[in-house]
Specification:
heterotrimer, A mainly alpha (362), B mainly alpha (298), C alpha/beta (281), A: 362 residues, mainly alpha, MetI-like fold, two-stranded antiparallel sheet, 62% helix, 1% strand, B: 298 residues, 12 helices
Chain lengths: 362, 298, 281
């Protein structure tokens, strides 16, 4: 028994895709029921005939490619747009202060004198301190998770470390202000002040909030980023490398040091730079813990200010073109630094791990 | 391993080979302990934060929090109803603006990877994802707030959308790449055009993962404060117009937290609890589901 | 055996005006297609995979393409349904005709060609997120074509693929939940539903167990009444069992082509004889 749709020819139905005009009213033209309108194999799509025998794209395909490509190009627009728009908006300030903006400590909305040095100092110092704390920890975590932990344990622990990254910045700030800062003030900082207070780093009264508090909370926040990238990098090291070291009689730590760390060196540096980039731009938690005083001091107890936190504090109420423009210029500087760091970091990570992240380059 | 083998490996018979071996073992043990300690140390803030938020927040949370507007400065009571709604509005706006760009852009990167546009867009998306959120706020201020002569929910939505697009785009691309080529071929062999294959077969098969990726992106932008500070600005009342400032939960938490009022501190904790519960719940669901799907690859 | 010329007439399409109307096919009469390949050479980038191959696939026959691995068998059939060109570095020269028309002609639309020349792949690839029913109808659903006779199509193609009795109560099960042999027959049903003239099969049984393989071989035998079938196979006994014609490819060149009986009993080419008797391959 042959199926119905192989049998009686059906009237031609105008197809959605075919650009051909409908057939004559004589109707039953073919046994091929599904095909709108014809027995023919080939069907002209709309568009000019291509004299060469290249595969022709239908209009739908071209439209889709253009539309999807347009959407993909939006990121390019955003990136270029950011650079352009912010540069334009910062122009009054750039014109007024030139490069001196970066080395001046003035910040006076009344007298319209602006300099970003204290903020740059605060940003760089807090970030570097945070890195100094977070990087060894991240390396330890990554090597534990990749070398020493077994399947389910590694997954659970890794997941918990990732959770740290999911907590919003403002919540970190809240915890920092109400829990960590008092603890710092009454605990470690008090001890340091008592015993090492003669050192320039620990001079002055500890408040809890200040450079140290900000650096600590930054360290906690960038830890998941650095350790996640390091973990990815460590996992990309071929087993053969580690096994070669073990086969030579190395202890586990030695094989890790020899095989993994050296192979993954550029990847680790990349992870560190990514962490640095995150630290430089971190705003809310830092604002709540750094004291927001634009000053440059050697003491870790002293309050300070960062580029991100001055923007957070003063932007909304800034009035006056030059004031706003100076703030935007700070934003521009931050933008430039983080973009450059990001490019550098991704290039380094890519070299170890391959272009698409965890899949090695084919 | 006996000591004669060990001394031969050490290559010198004068110093005590056993002690060198023991030292190496000790270093190994110390390093193992160190890396374990690092993990535990990292968990301390996590546990502390979660415990603190739950304890403080649970104390402060009540029905008022969810349905009342903030009271004027100095008065006790009130809630963050408008901030919760505002966050929902802003996230919704960001999705409307950002998801088509992210998903279709990701589809382009996956299916037309040979086009010269693809590597440029991919690289730019990666780099853009590292830009601090406050800088995005500055950009949107110059781009939207200034020309509009005012802060607005729309500007806030644009800022959040810009934060969302790079991650959604890359996630979509990675997931669509994972769809096996045999499914594409099966559809093409049936006489389905390329664009339909991409939308109806490839995208459909990647749908679950893409939804997870979008959920993670939403969880992230829901917790963002910095880009909203001078785009959406905040509002003490209900706000439904797109061209008016609007409140958002993280911003409200921030404002209350740095204020000198205890009552506002309490409410900040309540807000933090709500925010963290939402964000962590979405994260948990998304990550657990992704793990099951992909079989344990983080 | 019907002659292809009975039902096909040249049609000019670029201006949308057709030639004469084709006579309506008698009820139940199948319409297999006739394909011809002339002077086909194919490349992947700089690597040449086929050298000047000329072949004919007669309507309502089964033609087997055999040869050692890497001889270009898969490339050849992928050119027949314009799937070869999906690979960016792929190109070819030569002519491929379906019922007298050049499928690579300037006005030819690959999507339509693939409707007419269906394919079943080596590894079964049903759409995992679609039910059995939706898989069978996938050729229509993905093109947003609603068919009033959808249920009939499902039944008739599943019957044609010898799956109806097994699956008639399980039409809503996901396509990927079936066994390997069932999945492959589902893919065959899916390909049949859009009514191609020619059905290409790229080693359809190589991923299946012997029982499923036997079922599919029966299927191929039954299907040739209605379609033209070209099957690539590694399994020479299979080729001898099911095909009417056999083409033997060696390193991208057509070493010999003829009726299966002759190829397997008295081949002209020494290479053919050696391969067929298992001396290499």
């Amino acid at each position: 028994m042959t199926s119905p749709h192989l049998q009686a020819p059906r009237p031609a139905r105008p197809g959605k895709r075919a650009a051909r005009p409908p057939k004559g009213p004589a109707g039953p033209a073919e046994a091929h029921a599904g095909e709108p309108g014809g027995t023919a194999v080939v069907q002209a799509g709309p568009g000019a005939a291509d004299p060469q025998s290249h595969p022709r794209r239908s209009l739908g395909d071209t439209l889709f490619k253009v539309a999807a490509g347009g959407f993909a190009a939006v990121v390019l627009l955003i990136a270029v747009g950011m650079a352009w728009v912010m540069t334009q908006a910062a122009r009054p300030s750039i014109r007024a202060f030139g490069l001196g903006f970066l080395v001046s400590s003035a910040w006076d909305p009344v007298r319209n004198a602006y300099g970003a040095l204290p903020y740059i100092f605060g940003t760089v110092t807090s970030s570097l301190l945070a890195l100094a704390i977070a990087v060894p920890l991240a390396l330890g975590i990554a090597s534990f998770l990749s070398e020493l932990a077994r399947g389910p344990l590694a997954r659970v622990l890794g997941f918990l470390v990732e959770l740290l990254a999911a907590i919003p910045s403002v919540v970190y700030g809240l915890w920092g202000v109400f829990l960590m800062a008092p603890w710092l003030r009454n605990g470690p900082q008090a001890w340091l002040s008592r015993h090492l207070g003669f050192l320039p780093f620990f001079r002055g009264t500890p408040f809890g909030v200040g450079m140290m508090g900000a650096a600590l909370i930054l360290a906690v926040m960038i830890l998941p980023t650095i350790s996640a990238v390091c973990l990815e990098v460590f996992r990309a090291v071929p087993r053969a490398q580690r096994e070669a070291a073990l086969a030579l009689g190395a202890t586990r730590w030695e094989s890790t040091r020899m095989a993994v760390f050296s192979y993954a060196r550029s990847g680790i540096v990349g992870a560190v730079i990514l962490g640095l980039g995150r630290a430089l731009g971190e705003t809310m938690a830092v604002t709540m813990l750094i004291g927001n005083r634009p000053q440059i001091s050697a003491s870790l107890f002293a309050p300070a200010h960062t580029m991100a936190s001055v923007l957070a504090n003063e932007f909304a109420e800034a009035s006056g073109d030059l004031y706003l423009s100076a703030l935007i210029e700070i934003g521009l500087v931050l933008f430039g630094i983080t973009i450059l760091l990001n490019i550098l970091a991704r290039w380094l990570v890519w070299r170890t791990v391959g272009r698409f992240g965890s899949t090695p380059a084919a | 391993m006996n000591s004669s083998l060990q001394s031969a490996a050490a290559g010198d018979s004068s110093s005590a080979p056993d002690s060198r071996f023991l030292r190496r073992k000790a270093v190994n043990a110390a390093m193992t302990a160190f890396s374990l300690a690092c993990v535990l140390l990292a968990l301390v803030p996590l546990i502390s934060i979660l415990a603190f938020i739950v304890s403080q927040g649970a104390r402060a949370i009540n029905l008022d929090f969810f349905i009342r507007l903030p009271k004027p400065v100095g008065e006790a009571g009130g809630g963050m109803a408008n901030a919760i709604l505002g966050t929902l509005e802003l996230v919704g706006l960001a999705c409307v603006l950002g998801l088509p760009v992210g998903i279709l852009g990701g589809a382009f990167l996956s299916e037309y990877g040979n086009s010269p546009l693809a590597p440029a867009a991919r690289f730019t998306a990666d780099v853009l994802s590292g830009v601090p959120s406050i800088v995005v706020g500055v950009f949107v201020f110059a781009l939207v707030v200034r020309p509009m002569h005012g802060f607005s929910a729309f500007a806030g939505g644009v800022a959040l959308a810009i934060l969302m697009v790079p991650t959604v785009m890359r996630t979509t691309e990675e997931l669509m790449r994972l769809v096996p080529g045999s499914l594409r071929e099966a559809a093409l062999a049936l006489g389905v055009s390329h664009w339909r294959t991409v939308l109806l077969v490839v995208l459909q098969n990647a749908r679950g993962g893409i939804v997870m990726g979008v959920m993670l992106a939403i969880a992230r932008i829901a917790g963002e404060t910095a880009p909203l500070l001078f785009t959406a600005l905040g509002n003490r009342f209900w706000s439904f117009e797109l061209n008016q400032p609007i409140a958002a939960l993280p911003m409200q938490i921030f404002t209350y937290a740095i204020s000198p009022f205890d009552d506002w501190h309490r409410q900040a904790w309540a807000g933090a609890l709500v925010l963290v519960v939402l964000v962590l719940a979405v994260n948990l669901v998304a990550r657990v589901a992704v793990r099951q799907r992909v079989g344990g690859t983080p | 055996m019907s002659q292809p010329g009975d039902f096909v007439r040249p049609v000019v399409l670029s201006d949308g005006v057709s030639g004469q109307e084709a006579p309506p096919a008698p009820p139940g009469f199948p319409r297999g297609g006739h394909m011809e390949v002339r002077g086909l050479s194919a490349w992947f980038g700089p690597q040449q995979a086929l050298f000047d191959v000329s072949l004919e696939f007669r309507a309502h026959t089964v033609t087997a393409i055999i040869g050692p691995s890497g001889c270009g068998k898969s490339t050849l059939i992928r050119i027949l349904n314009r799937l070869h060109e999906v690979v960016p570095s792929a190109r070819h020269t030569g002519t491929v005709l379906l019922d007298g028309e050049d499928i690579y002609g300037p006005i030819a639309d690959p999507v339509h060609v693939r409707r007419q020349v269906g394919m079943v792949f080596q590894r079964p690839n049903p759409f995992p997120n679609m039910s059995v029913r939706d898989n069978v109808l996938a050729g229509f659903k993905l093109n947003h074509q609603r068919r009033a006779d959808a249920e009939e199509i499902v039944e008739s193609t599943l019957r044609a693929a010898a799956l109806w009795d097994e699956l008639k109560d399980l039409l809503d099960k996901p396509g990927a939940s079936l066994s390997g042999g069932q999945q492959q027959r589902l893919c065959i049903a899916r390909a049949l539903a859009v009514q191609p003239r020619v059905l290409l099969m790229d080693e359809p049984c190589s991923a299946l167990d012997p029982v499923s393989t036997a079922k599919i071989e029966e299927l191929i035998f039954a299907l040739k009444e209605r379609f033209t079938i070209v099957t690539v196979t590694h399994n020479m006994q299979q080729a001898a069992r099911i095909s009417d014609f056999t083409a033997f490819l060696m390193q991208g060149r057509l070493a010999e082509f003829g009726t299966t009986r002759r190829i397997f009993t008295s081949p002209e080419n020494k290479l053919t004889e050696d391969y067929v008797s298992g001396r290499f391959g």
